[in-house]
Amino acid sequence: MKQSVKGALLTAGGGVCWGLSGSMGQYLFTKQGMDAHWLVPIRLFLAGVILFIYCRIRMGKYVYSPWKTKRDARDLLVYGLLGISLCQYLYFRTIQLSTAGAATILQDLSPVMILIVECIHRHEKPGIFDVFSIILALVGVTLITTHGRMELGIPAGALLCGVLCAGCVTVYNCYPRHLLAHFPVVVLQAWSFLMGGLLFAFVFKIWQYNYVPNVMGIIGIAFVVVVGNVLAFTMYMQGVKEIGPEKGILYGFAEPVTAAIVTGIMGTPFTVGDFIGFVCVFAMLVMISLSKQKQQA
Fold first, then answer.
1. 164 partner at 20 to 30 Å CA-CA among 84, 96, 124, 297?
2. Which is more confidently placed, 144 or 11?
3. First vs last Cα of the chain: how many Å apart?
4. What is the crossing angle of helices 100-107 and 128-146, to 10°?
5. Phi-psi bin for 152: left (phi > 0), alpha (psi -120 to 50), beta?
C-alpha cells in the first residue's frame, strides 16, 4: 500500500473513532450524569495502562527510551501534556458545556492554525488547493454539525475551551516532528495518556467525587477508552507520521461526518444543510487529491 493511501486511511480512521467517541461522551454526560473532570483522568489513565503494557510486552525496555535525553523528555512533556492530554480534557469539557457538535466546530478551527504554522516553518505561502480545501472543510463541518441552522448558541465557557482545544490539536500535530521520527507512535501515546491521567487525577481530585457508574456507564467508559483513545490517537498520529500534519488534519474531518451519521441513526432528520455539508467535505477530499497530483507533477 502506498504511503499516502495508508496515511489517509489511518487519519480518516482516527477521525471516525473520535466521532464515535464524542457521541458516546455526550451520552455519558447527558444520560449517565458523568463529569468531564472525573471522566477524562480515568479515560486517559486506563488508555495509558493498556498501551504501556502492550509496548512493554512487544518492545521491552525500549519503551523507556523517550526519557533518555533532555530534548526527548522535554518534547514528550510538551506533546503529551499540552498537546494530547489537555486537548482531551478541553474537548470533553466543551461537550459538557454545550454539545458534541459545537465542540467539533470549534476544534476544527485547528486546520487554519496548522496551515499557518506549517507555512511559517517552511517559509512558503499556502497553496491555492490547501486554502480552498480548508474553507470547504470548515463550511462542511459547520453545516453538518448545525444541520444548517446558524442560530446555534455556544456558551462563553464552551467557546473558550473549544478554541483552546483547537490550539492543542495544533500542538500535537506540528510539534512532535523529532519524536515521531525517532520513536513509535504507540510508545508516545502510552506515555502521553499516563502522564495526563495522573496529572488530571490530582488536579481535579477525582477521589472526592461520589459518582459510581452503572453497567451502561462502565460500557461507555470502556468505549471512549478503547475507541476514543487507544485506537483513535494511535491511528491518527501514525497517519500524520506518514503524510504530514497538513494533510492529516484534513482527513481527520471524518470525525464530524461520523458524528453526524450517528446522530442521524439516533433519530435526527437528515437536512438540506447536512447534504450541502457532505458535498463540501467530499469536495475538500477532491481538492486534497488534486493538491497531491500537483505536488507530484
1. 124
2. 11
3. 20
4. 170
5. beta
- What is the pLDDT confidence band of residue 220, given thresholds at 50, 70 and 90? very high
- How far is 236 from 10, CA to CA, in rounded Å? 6
- With beta carbons less than 8 A apart as the criterion, state whether 112 and 134 touch: yes
185 within 8 A of 238, measured Cβ to Cβ: yes
Cα atoms in the 13 Å half-sphere on the side-chain side of 41 = 14
Secondary structure (DSSP) of 249-294: HHHTTHHHHHHHHHHHHTT----HHHHHHHHHHHHHHHHHHHHHHH
- Of 76-85, 95-104, 286-295, the poorest mean pLDDT is in 286-295
111 within 8 A of 138, measured Cβ to Cβ: yes
Strand, coil or helix: what is 118? helix
Q: CA 212, 217, 223 angle in degrees (round to 5)?
A: 135
DSSP alpha helices (H): ranges in the chain?
A: 3-30, 36-59, 70-77, 86-97, 100-107, 110-122, 128-146, 156-174, 177-182, 185-204, 215-225, 232-243, 245-251, 254-265, 272-296
Q: Are 250 and 126 in contact (CB under 8 A)?
A: no
**C-alpha cell read off for 8:** 489517509
